[in-house]
Amino acid sequence: MPALTVKDLMTTDVTTLPAQTPLREAAQVMRTRDIGDVVVAEGEKLIGLVTDRDIVVRAIADGADPATTVVGSIVSTELVTVRPEDSAADAARLMRDRAVRRVLVVEEAGGLAGILSIGDLAADIDPDSVLGGISTAEPNN
CATH for 6-136? Predict the structure, then answer.
């Protein structure tokens, strides 16, 4: 059996928003799409990643107004990336070593191909694990 690649496990339907998107709008997009993150981009240029936790911890907890504060002001700009042809095991090690829950999947030319999360890894590699079960369960909202 061939080793799994990032392409085998990644999510290809990635939501991108411009840096000037208000946090409230980003949160509404996350709720509607049942996702926990959005990629911040200006055209084809990847700027970073914002998660639902970032919105709470980096903005709301400090009293930022979600109607006027934009995702560009809280975006994580240190991008951790992998290629679609990288092995899933290598991606998992990178995520562990960099202590991140998600990595962006980029093509050789730099274009966004998808996103890989620890949930994607768990759901496919160890679906009977607690994280695998949570990752494949229906949303409770």
Answer: 3.10.580.10
